[in-house]
Amino acid sequence: MPNNVIVLGTQWGDEGKGKVADLLTTKANIVVRSQGGNNAGHTLVVGDKKVVVRLVPSGILHKECLCLIGSGVVVNPGALFEEIEELNRAGVESVESRIKISGAASLLLPIHPAIDKGAEKLRGKNAIGTTGRGIGPCYEDKVARRGVRVSDLYDMENFKVKLKALLDYRNFMLKNFYSEPEVSYESVLSYIESLRERILNMVADVSEIIAKGRREKQKILFEGAQGTFLDIDYGTYPYVTSSNTVAGGCVTGSGAGPLDIDYVLGIAKVYTTRVGGGPYPTELNDEVGEGIRKRGAEFGAVTGRPRRTGWYDAVAMRRAVTINSLTGLALMKMDVLDGMDEVKICTAYKMPDGSIRQLPPLSAHEYEGITPVYESMPGWKESTFGVTKWEDLPVNAQNYIRRLEELSGAKVAILSTGPERDQTIYLDDPFAD
């Protein structure tokens, strides 16, 4: 009986993890965020209101669910409390008391977005396409061991020394390298002091809470952010995020043990999207791609940026299945492909030298000159919107999904046919008893 389930993106983010996480959190006792920061958003529906959560785990909508923010997350305190206030206004109960933060999590400070934006501006046409929220610079400070952590707030004298050293270093870069205004020490210290007590009231030993939940047979959901091909190691580097978005990152970023995971559910759209720069072999810069963008409402939940759109990439998915040890797939937005004469699947990459690759490269420059090899299948004119039974899908839609399974190497567990919770086909329940 699976008790610990990972839900993560298997493409370039924005796959629809929010809906799946929300579906599964109805059964979960604990939901854990283990990487990323307030640069990724999940849209949740509260009654007739839509709320976008960025740092807060999706389980917050369920009043009996405990929400954990692990050591692998970079925490922007101001952004966190803005989310909490938005959830309070939406009528969600006991929000702040149900969120616990690891003391080992890094604090994202106002200096970090300033550095992020300065770096992107300096890159010019080679900009990575970050959200500008300071996630990368915060992780950079963490790895360089000059960052500040949530637990540093217990000793404010020591915190002030660390903060001064960090700002001296970062302001030197802002002024002399990026030609941007400095961020004052006094303003950052005042900002942190105003939130310090609230933050410390939320600190807990996240790893031990997970271990205790495991011993008590509680159902724990590990909620990934971004997607597999934005992983700092396995994504299209350097056009990636700054954390490990694969299943292993859910373990290291939360404090769970490697053998504690029972089921890994990968989320993917029945096509692909990407935001920002970087390689994207199946991208459609034509009316077909624009049609998918409009029908799928492909605009960022946090940034509002239009997403790049393309056909399903089975080559990339094979890598995602392997490095995440996927148990099953949740395929999203089936209805967006309704009404098309044909649908295509990328089955291989043709390299500039004419060779054929079944797996994607590991660096962005290796994608240069790649031509996707497509397999075409007949589309379907019937609507799949809101269908809840497999047998009610058009035959061509069924054939398409089965072909995606064959080419990707993973079985479909969940198929989404619309944005609402009940617009879902269950073929396998990750939390099944």
From TrEMBL:
One example GO MF annotation: adenylosuccinate synthase activity
Entry keywords, A to Z: Cytoplasm, GTP-binding, Ligase, Magnesium, Metal-binding, Nucleotide-binding, Purine biosynthesis
Organism: Succinivibrio faecicola
Name this protein carries in UniProt: Adenylosuccinate synthetase
Gene name linked to the record: purA
Keyword set includes Ligase: yes
Cofactor: Mg(2+)
Localization annotation: Cytoplasm
Active site: 14 (proton acceptor), 42 (proton donor), 142
HAMAP family the record matches: Adenylosucc_synth
